[in-house]
Structure formats: C-alpha cells, structure tokens
Amino acid sequence: MAEKRKSSKSERAGMASRSHGSDVVRVDFAFKRELAQKVEGDLANFCYQCGACVGDCPATRYSPAFNPREIMLKVLYGLESELLGPDSVLWQCTNCYGCHERCPQEVKPVEVIISLKNMLADRGLAPPAADKVIQTFMSNGRTVPDNPAIDKQRAKFDLPPLRTVPMDEVLALIGSEVEEESGS
Amino acid sequence: MKRYAFFPGCLIPARHPAMEFAIRSSLPKLGIEIVDLEGASCCPDPIYFKSKDKLDWLAVAARNLTLAEDLGLDIFTNCSGCTATLSETYHLLQDEELRDRVNQRLARIDREYRGTSRVRHIATLVRDEVGYDAVRESVERPLEGLKVAIHYGCHLLKPSRIMQVDNPDNPQVLERLIEALGATPVRHANWYLCCGKACDGEDIPNQMMHDLLATVHDEKADVLGMICPTCFGQFDHGQMKIAKLFDEDFHTPPIYYFQLLAFAQGVPYEKLGFERQRFKPVALQRYEEVAAK
Questions:
Q1: Contact residues on chain A for B54, CB-CB shorter than 8 A
Q2: Which residues in chain B are contacts of A93 at CB distance < 8 A?
Q3: What is the DSSP string of B106-122?
Q4: How far apart are the CA of B33 and the nearest CA of chain A, in angstroms?
Q5: Which of B183, B232, B234, B245 is the most exposed place for a label (fewest CB within 10 A)?
Q6: The complex's ipTM?
Q7: Residue A182's closest chain B neighbor by CA?
Q8: Is residue B212 located within the same domain as residue B179?
Q9: Quick check: A130 and B52 CB within 8 A?
Q10: Domain for residue B136, yes or no?
Q11: What is the pTM of this model?
Q12: Nearest chain A alpha carbon to B104
C-alpha cells in the first residue's frame, strides 16, 4: 500500500493548482497519496493518455464536459480542485465499464473515477441520489425501501415475504477501525 | 438436478416479483435446483454504495459470498448489477493483501471469505450447465414468428475479463437463448448503448435513452428482450417518459428473458404479471390462442 498521507491540508492547498501563465504544472502528491489509499485508486499512474477510453464512452458522446482521458490526466497532475468539487463532472460517468474493457494499460478508468467518488463522499459531496441509496441500505440492508405493498405483490405470485437481513452483522462490517487502517 | 445458491438481490424480489416467479418456475424444468440463501443483504449496489466506500462495498459483498461458501455451492444471480458486484469481489479478492483487509472486517462477525464459490449470471448458468438444446426441449409453445429486439445492458458483458459472460463486441448468449424459444432475435443499431440509469442527472440519460429507443423502434419488433432489471425500468416507465418528452411514438414492450422462457414453457400469460407493465407484451397472446385451438 501507498504510505499514509502526512502533508497538511494547507500544504496541499498551496501546491494544488496549475500555475497560470506558465507551462509549469505542480503535481499534488498529497492528493495522489490519498487517492492511492482507495481500492484501485492508484491505477491512473499507468495511463499513457492514448484515449482508447474516449471513443466508447457514452457520457463523452452526450456531454462535452466528460472525458475519461482528461480525468486521468488531471489525476496524474493531481489537480484536486478540478475533480473534487460540488457538482463534480465525475457523476456524469454512466458506469458502463467500456473504458475498463478498452484500456490497454489496465488503468480501469471507471475504477479510478469511483475511487475519486469515494474521496467526494469522504468530503460530504455525494449527490442526493447516492445518499438516498446508502440511507435505505443502512435501514434495511437493501436498496429498496420497506413497504407492505411489496409482500402483498409477492403473495400474488405465491412468493414468501422478503427475507429479513441481519442488520447487526451487515452494519458491523461498515467503516474502518483505527488500528486496521494504520496496519494497512 | 444441479444445485445452485440463488442470490436474488433487491430489485427483482421487491420491484419485479413476476421475474422471480418466472425464474423459480423455469429453472427446475431445466434441471436446476434453486437453493435459497439465508441472511443475504443487498449485493451491495455497484453504483452508489460502491461510490461511497469501496472497502465497505467489498466487505458486505464478501459476506454475501461466504453464505454460499457455507453451503458449498456456486452462486447464481438474476440481476446484472448483483453480478457486477459479486463477480468483481470474487476477482479482486484473489489479491491476498486485499483479501486480508476484507477478512479483518469479516472477523468482526466471525466470518472468513475463502473464495470457494464461483459467481454465475443466470444466463450463463443456463448456457453452460443446461445448454441451448435443453432449453429448446423444455419449450411447449414455440414462439415462431415473434420478433425480439435485444438489449444486453452494460454489466452483463463488461468488464469481460471479470464478468466472463461473453464477447462484449459481438455477444451471442441472449440471441441464442431467444432462438431456443423459437423466436427471432434482432440486433438494433444502438444495441451496445448504455441505458443511462447509473448516470446522475437528467439530460445525458434522456438523450441516451432517446437514441436507444429510436433504433429499437426502427426494428418494429414485437418485444424487447432483456436481462437486467435496471434496464427494464428504463425501457418500461422510462420509455413512456422519453416518448412524451421527445414527442415520439416509442412503444416496444420490454420483457425479461425468464418471463419469456416461462411463457414458452407453458405458464399462462395472465400468471406472469405483465399487467403491471406500462407496455404489455400482448404479441404473446397469439401463441396462447394457437395452443387453445
């Protein structure tokens, strides 16, 4: 695993952006180290910007703002402020996995994008649709809210009521422990 | 009978019980015994739950897989999203370091993931363990002359190294499964396009669905055969929404493959829950009339 992040937030802020008016790009390694902590977050390092991910991308076809190659480039540069803001363009990804299929470097751009979404969630910047799914899951272990009409519908097909999810077991799995993180 | 642990997920049992009914009706006729999994949760969902925290997502998914491991059975799924989550978990946890991290989580509930249960999508289960010929033999009323447009959806096929279902550039499994019912599959021009459901916002998915539905409509098919409950929603109430929004006459009824199979195997039309669909596959009714004569 990548080493734990040591730099402070203010240190990151100072090196986060492209310096305008010159060709110099300052790479924000603190951002990249945080991303590398996420499962498969470090894969963008292998990106050589060939653009194979772009041709098949349905989000690119319908939204000029979304381009997986450019997102990987911003990750390589560590341009946190262009990736991790409110209403991030990352949520336009359709999760079709076409880029994962096409990438000759096994960068899995969609997985890097999902790792970036993990960072957005850490910062409280997930869209309402995502929060809703998580809340429902935390309440009943499913993505569909409880509703008595469900079991009535099921009975019409001679199906038993939905099985109860043992929430104590499921919730015990959520969230890292401090000692676990430092050992990883 | 070959025995498999059934992972039904959330959408099909809660929103589309007719699909679950069709699966439970049709698989035993193909020599598959369904073993229910006690204590399963959401897979969890590969879009929003995964976007919150991948390690939480892996830990919950791994717990679900251990339930099948306890039974010593391979697991089969009926939803492309569940297939994506569980197949990817199986694949990722071949990495020892990651498996250790996930097993640290599972140790909190005295469970351990071992990686002994394979994940199979129901379509590949039928293709590989039953075979197209046995499907054909189980059919009581061949759907000759029924034109079925095909929509695969994304997660059944991609990423192919992990899903291990079919070639995503020229898939065959749904076409062959439809042919086994006596029907005629057709590939519409935008067959590979995503349904857009997992894309946040309105405009991009609406445009995507419009272009998809336009080429489905061009085929003038009797029904649109599919395998994913998420895509199904986009093609049922979603089709009505897009038709209105763009002022188009889109109206091809979507149908989940296993409902079509159950119908061909002789389950009456009115028992398959089609009355709940916005677009009803009424073209099937002519095969009941023929059988009644």
A1: 38-40, 114-115, 118
A2: 198-199
A3: HGGGT------S-EEEH
A4: 16
A5: B245
A6: 0.95
A7: B101
A8: yes
A9: yes
A10: no
A11: 0.92
A12: A180
Handedness of CA B185, B187, B192, B195 (dihedral sign): negative
What confidence score (pLDDT) does residue A5 get? 44
Instruction: Divide the 293 residues of chain B into consecutive groups of 10 and give the mean pLDDT of each group.
Output: 97 98 98 97 96 97 98 97 97 97 98 98 97 98 98 95 95 98 97 90 93 97 96 96 97 98 98 97 91 65
Say how many CB pairs under 8 Å bridge A and B. Answer: 172
Q: List helix spans (H) across A37-147.
A: 52-55, 58-62, 68-77, 80-83, 98-102, 109-122, 128-140
Q: How confident is the model at residue A178 (pLDDT cuts 50, 70, 90)?
A: low
Task: Quote the pLDDT of residue A14.
Answer: 41
- Are B146 and B89 within one domain? no
How does DSSP assign B135-193, residue by residue?
Answer: HHHH-SS--TT-EEEEE--STTTSSHHHH-SS-TTS--HHHHHHHTTT-EEE--TTTT-
Q: A147 is in which domain, residue-wise? A: 128-183
Determine the distance in angstroms separating the CA of A28 from the nearest CA of chain B, rounded to an integer: 22
In sequence order, what E strands does chain B have? 2-7, 32-36, 75-77, 119-121, 147-151, 184-186, 223-226, 254-256
Task: Give B252 to chain A, closest Cα distance, Å.
Answer: 23
Among candidate residues B91, B122, B153, the one where a domain is terminated = B122
Mark yes or no for CB contact A98/B154 under 8 Å.
Answer: yes
pLDDT band at A176 (very low <50, low <70, confident <90, very high): confident
Q: Which tens digit of pLDDT belongs to each residue from B117-159?
A: 999 999 999 999 999 999 999 999 999 999 999 999 999 999 9
CATH number of the domain within which A117 lies: 1.10.1060.10
Query: Looking at the structure, do residues B36 and B116 belong to the same domain, yes or no?
Result: yes
B108 and B205 housed in the same domain: no
Instruction: Give the model's pLDDT for residue B293.
Output: 64
Q: Which of A58, A101, A172 sits opposite B208 (nearest CB)?
A: A58
Other Cβ atoms within 10 Å of A14 Cβ, number: 12
Smallest Cβ–Cβ distance between B42 and the set A141, A159, A174 belongs to A141
What does the buried/exposed string (b/e) look like for B65-90 if buried means 16 or more CB atoms within 10 Å of the residue's CB? bbbbbebebbbbbbbbbbbbbbbbbb
Nearest to B201 among A92, A100, A120 (CB): A92
For A121, nearest residue in chain B (alpha carbons) = B52
Q: Which residues of B touch A103 (CB under 8 A)?
A: none
Q: Does A4 map to a domain?
A: no
Task: State which residues form the domain around B279.
Answer: 141-292
Distance from CA of A21 to the nearest CA of B (A): 34
pLDDT tens-digit profile of A5-23? 444 444 444 444 454 566 7
Give the chain A residue nearest B276 (alpha carbons): A153
